[in-house]
Design brief:
alpha+beta, four-stranded antiparallel beta sheet, single chain, elongated
Length: about 80
């Protein structure tokens, strides 16, 4: 299932937590939470629905990057 970050810009006042309704939504799994950032796992339509309920927040899809092995194995 896709993951999305929901975040508040620094110019917005941080309320310190996710809305209680978001926690109780069975369609959403909160993977990580910080005062201005949430990493959630859910369908895109559900993430956009929650974004509409959270004024001042922005949404981006999670981007995963593979970290190269610092000690490659000899061939």
């Amino acid at each position: 299932m896709p993951r999305y970050t929901l975040h508040q810009p620094k110019t917005a006042a941080a309320d310190g937590s996710a809305p209680a309704d978001l926690r109780s939504d069975q369609r959403v799994s909160i993977i990580a939470e910080m005062p201005r950032l949430l990493l959630i796992e859910c369908p895109e339509a559900v993430a956009e629905e929650w974004l509409a309920r959270m004024p001042g927040w922005k949404m981006q899809p999670e981007h995963r990057v593979t970290v190269p092995d610092p000690r490659p194995k000899p061939s």
